[in-house]
């Protein structure tokens, strides 16, 4: 099961317009980071390793809106850091929703219940919370390096669902995971908590992450997902991915990275070449596309890309391959 029909049709129309305009590179969704500060210190993330002067900065709403308007992306994933620490995060979300952008507010949810009544946010077909859940209680609390966060996350999800919000989750997979632990958390989210949709992604070895020992290799990733998806799980789970990307995770197909499809815009500008690596910044998306040597990146080209199978690089490739094939488009429509 992929994205909702109205969203799928909107993205298909957007891709058709790009083809008619003969644009070879364009964004599907922007990873927007309006701050780097966070209330947690996850060992697998390097975002809070920035200097204190950077962690204090907050991107103005006008700057964020201008960046999304300039690139024209139909979807925005607001991350960080922890976006709920931004004083104008609700205004930012509402500005994007008003422009009919599909917005995913990525949060660890530890602050959510305390802040929800102070936020001017309403349920909308264009808006969803994307909550990080990296395992059941013990595994998740270890991933965020703080006890009690898992229970708070589950309470927050229940509160959001009661208020009518669309709730999705994002689960990052490390080499400490097994097919069983991944199956357990996705079963829990899908069947017991009943979130609307779920995303999964192999962890990427952030250069500044304190923990550098628990990132998956390509073969490990393929074996883990192949086993976790067996027995009908893949079809049963409400996964917010294209079938071809799930094939990619299992090793049934291989793709080139399409980093320009999910660009990252932060306090520093447009990040080269992607959300996961930092080889400089551009002022505009057009400059990012024109000045980045895209052929220098990818497996077999840059050693930093050797084990990357993250959705921010390969999901757009899978989406483009799907739209370029009638067979795959019908398959995606059936959720197979």
UniProtKB/TrEMBL annotation:
SMART domains: Elp3. Transmembrane segments: none annotated. PROSITE patterns: RADICAL_SAM (PS51918). Keywords: Iron, Iron-sulfur, Metal-binding, S-adenosyl-L-methionine. Residues 22-233 form the Radical SAM core domain. It holds the Pfam family DUF3463. One of its GO terms (molecular function) is catalytic activity. The keyword rRNA-binding does not apply. PANTHER family: PEPTIDE BIOSYNTHESIS PROTEIN YYDG-RELATED (PTHR11228:SF22), RADICAL SAM DOMAIN PROTEIN (PTHR11228). This is Radical SAM protein. It comes from Saccharomonospora viridis.
């Amino acid at each position: 099961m992929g994205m909702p029909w109205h969203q799928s049709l909107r993205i298909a129309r957007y891709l058709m317009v790009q083809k008619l305009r003969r644009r070879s590179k364009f964004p599907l969704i922007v990873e927007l980071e309006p701050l780097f500060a966070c209330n947690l210190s996850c060992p697998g993330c390097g975002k809070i390793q920035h200097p204190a002067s950077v962690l204090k900065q907050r991107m103005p709403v006008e700057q964020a809106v201008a960046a999304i308007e300039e690139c024209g992306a139909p979807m925005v994933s607001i991350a960080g850091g922890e976006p709920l620490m931004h004083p104008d995060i609700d205004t930012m979300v509402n500005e994007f929703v008003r422009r009919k952008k599909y917005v995913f507010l990525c949060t660890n949810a530890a602050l959510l219940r305390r802040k929800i009544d102070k936020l001017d946010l309403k349920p909308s077909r264009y808006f969803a919370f994307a909550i990080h859940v990296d395992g059941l209680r013990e595994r998740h609390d270890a991933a965020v390096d703080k006890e009690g966060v898992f229970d708070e996350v589950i309470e927050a999800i229940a509160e959001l669902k009661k208020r009518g919000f669309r709730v999705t989750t994002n689960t990052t997979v490390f080499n400490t995971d097994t097919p069983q632990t991944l199956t357990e958390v996705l079963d829990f989210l899908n069947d017991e908590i009943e979130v609307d949709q779920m995303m999964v992604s192999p962890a990427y070895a952030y250069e500044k992450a304190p923990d550098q020992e628990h990132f998956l290799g390509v073969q490990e990733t393929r074996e883990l997902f192949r086993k976790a998806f067996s027995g009908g799980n893949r079809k049963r789970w409400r996964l917010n991915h294209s079938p071809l990307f799930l094939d990619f995770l299992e090793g049934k197909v291989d793709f080139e990275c399409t980093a320009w499809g999910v660009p990252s815009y932060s306090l520093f500008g447009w990040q080269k070449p992607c959300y996961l690596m930092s080889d400089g910044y551009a002022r505009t998306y057009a400059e990012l596309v024109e000045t980045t040597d895209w052929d220098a990146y990818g497996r077999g080209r840059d050693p930093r890309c050797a084990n990357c199978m993250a959705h921010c690089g390969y999901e757009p490739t899978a989406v483009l391959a799907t739209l370029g094939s009638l067979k795959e488009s019908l398959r995606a429509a059936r959720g197979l």
